[in-house]
Amino acid sequence: MVTQGRIRVVRSGGSKLNYRRPVFSADGKYLMCVSGDFIKVYSTATEECIHTLQGHDNLVTGIELNPKNHLQLYSCSLDGTIKLWDFIDGILIKTFLIGCKCLTLYTSDTDELLFAVTLKKNNGSTASPQLVSVKLPKSTSQECEAKDISVIFEDVSHLPKCTAIGRQCLYVASVKGLHLSIYYFKTKKCFRRNFNHKQGYVYSSLHWHHDSVMDLTFSAQGTKLLSGGVESVLVQWPYGSEEKKEFLPRLGAAIEHISTSPHGTLYCTSHEDNKISIIDTSLKVSGIIQGLLKGTVVKTGLVVDPRSNALVLNGKPGHLQFYSLHNDRHLYNLDIVQQEFIHQAGLQYMDLVKALFNSTGKWLATVEELQGGEDSRDLEMQMKFWEYQDKSQSFVLNTIISRPHEDHITSLCFRDGVSSAKDSPTLVTTGKDGIFKVWVLNNNYDIYKQSNSWCCDFVGSYHKNKATNCCFSEDGSLLAVSFDEIITVWESSTWDLKQTFCQPPGKIRNLCFGRMSCSKYLVASTNDGFIYCWNLLTCALEWRAQLDAAVLQPDPLSENIAVISCPKGSSNLFLFQPTDPRPFYAHKNVCREKVQWAVFVPKEIPEFVNSESHQWLNKSQLYFLTENQDLLTFSSKSTEERLTPLSKQLAVEESLPVTPFHLLLCKKRQEEQEKLDVQLVKAAPSFHRVYQDSAIREVLHTPAHVLPSASVLCTIFVNSLLISRKSQSTEELKDEEMESEHLEGDSTDETEEVESQNTFPSAFSLDVSGILPKVQEKELRKIRRTDYSWLSSL
């Protein structure tokens, strides 16, 4: 068994963007928000992620602009540090060690003074939040310890909205429950009062929201008050004329945070569906930053779109969300139910419970059920088939099948391996009604047009047991269907029952065929804590291992199968191949929560690593989702190096602002120029080719401040393009050189005349001077005739 090595669990993205209130830059061009352990910097104009600030080892709990430098950002985290960033360039400037967990961060106008809510360790196991002031030390080192920490309030609320810092840092106010505490810095006294008697303290009341208000904030000028709540409506209250309030409705989800830009031209709202809406002062949405939607039960599991390699799972009620794992960005939502969702407790609604793509991504099958009903006789269910249209670049509804089963559908599987192009796509569904159905695509012909639709082709059962799982073999020739404790194997061409497998008592929880060289094996996990492997050639049990597998996920690009077990308090990963019951890789305590779903995602660029502990990450990446809806994956050092931006990997000249596109284009041009040079070597005379190349090179590479006039440049360049009327061959040149040794006077003059006709002085070369004397010319010709080919072997 291979040990863990350098492979570790990392957060894949999809973290909450609405965990804390976003922060605008001073000019309103950038928007910073917390995203798990990272801080993301977005452009308010394009909604693109400009930088991802990485450096904290735990959850980031607060961000604030540096009042002394608006190009810098402070952040605090549960790792007990406060970091100072240059968010324009994405650079970490300094780290301050606090020594305790920071829950909230506040800045002040005073010199290097911050406020934070930290956890005070008591004698017992619990810790209470306290508000402290932190004097940041002035040090040249990048990491230093902040020792000057003083407590202002004890037992305060950990919520950032419950504490506020006054201007010029004169007052600090904090509220918890019905108690308000105000601290005056000059006298260092604390004033407390309560709000038990409501009528004695209310100066004015503004009413529109029918439910609790989630956030309040004033505009930059202080003339307007913004409020939002569960109604998904942003309300703008003008000061002095509150009856003229304005509304921005239908924002999609409950508003949790409201932020305003310092110059007052932009607002932004954070919603419970992990979305940030950028709004201008005319109350119009100018941009949306959508993260991985959380807060809903993931009933579809983790599905991969073969076309875009995007992660697909439940999104808004009745929707599928497509999420790019590579860019950590929400792509789009697909409305499956196509009904208006009403947010009210106790109402029944149609929700998406199953989704599956075929191997090409051409077809998508979905199942939706009415939530809230327990009786199967009143079950309302629909199965829909969606076809991907290349012209519209979207999925179009093809077929709707009402109540495909008499009870809940338990699993779906497409037949991926088809023997010929004539084989129509096939889908198998299993249900609690004790049957499995085979659905095929049929072509329909009428007088108007040719169309296609899905219909039921075969219905199978086994002793009226509940059908729980189904899967096809890699080539699509066999279908395995589990009925409670029994596994049946069917031939897909005739739908005949070929074999049944039984094991000790225990219902089948997961079922899958082996891949590639292990395609003759069938693997299943049961709810009594065992994994079984059968050999389909001998129809015998190959091996059995004791492991309570919550997730059994095969890798479509290799023989590997991932198993995740979830004992109390942790989750463990094991990787094995059906040929050997012993796992070749194990990773214990991958997370503290229970893992619900896992999926292998093919990599865009396969990797080739010789290490045994890394080979299972060569072609695919394993992602898994916890019960807290944290999306995690496994990463190695070599993988992270390949995921760094291309602009940081390419070596560029320091004097030129070179982009990755320029480097790629330059490389292509160099290859083309090399090919052209090879052709010129074979075609053109050597003296003409060398001169032409040198002339062009000198024109292009000579600094502009030392170039001669344009007339000289044009003359040299045009002359380099001219071809002499007489192209002497190599033999003729050798004969001429032999004759020049014996001839003097006129013969030498003739040689000089020929050379003067075929040679042009260069304006950029320092080697070319006047005409050489005859004695030096003879010595130069002798040097030219000397064979120096032996130097090439050195």
UniProtKB/TrEMBL annotation:
<dbReference type="GO" id="GO:0032040">
    <property type="term" value="C:small-subunit processome"/>
</dbReference>
<feature type="repeat" description="WD">
    <location>
        <begin position="53"/>
        <end position="95"/>
    </location>
</feature>
<feature type="domain" description="WD repeat-containing protein 75 second beta-propeller">
    <location>
        <begin position="302"/>
        <end position="629"/>
    </location>
</feature>
<dbReference type="GO" id="GO:0003723">
    <property type="term" value="F:RNA binding"/>
</dbReference>
<keyword id="KW-0539">Nucleus</keyword>
<dbReference type="InterPro" id="IPR001680">
    <property type="entry name" value="WD40_rpt"/>
</dbReference>
<dbReference type="InterPro" id="IPR015943">
    <property type="entry name" value="WD40/YVTN_repeat-like_dom_sf"/>
</dbReference>
<feature type="compositionally biased region" description="Acidic residues">
    <location>
        <begin position="746"/>
        <end position="755"/>
    </location>
</feature>
<keyword id="KW-0853">WD repeat</keyword>
<keyword id="KW-0677">Repeat</keyword>
<dbReference type="Pfam" id="PF23869">
    <property type="entry name" value="Beta-prop_WDR75_1st"/>
</dbReference>
<keyword id="KW-0804">Transcription</keyword>
<keyword id="KW-0690">Ribosome biogenesis</keyword>
<dbReference type="InterPro" id="IPR057644">
    <property type="entry name" value="Beta-prop_WDR75_2nd"/>
</dbReference>
<dbReference type="GO" id="GO:0006364">
    <property type="term" value="P:rRNA processing"/>
</dbReference>
<dbReference type="GO" id="GO:0045943">
    <property type="term" value="P:positive regulation of transcription by RNA polymerase I"/>
</dbReference>
<feature type="region of interest" description="Disordered">
    <location>
        <begin position="729"/>
        <end position="762"/>
    </location>
</feature>
<dbReference type="InterPro" id="IPR011047">
    <property type="entry name" value="Quinoprotein_ADH-like_sf"/>
</dbReference>
<protein>
    <submittedName>
        <fullName>WD repeat domain 75</fullName>
    </submittedName>
</protein>
<dbReference type="Pfam" id="PF23769">
    <property type="entry name" value="Beta-prop_WDR75_2nd"/>
</dbReference>
<keyword id="KW-0698">rRNA processing</keyword>
<dbReference type="InterPro" id="IPR053826">
    <property type="entry name" value="WDR75"/>
</dbReference>
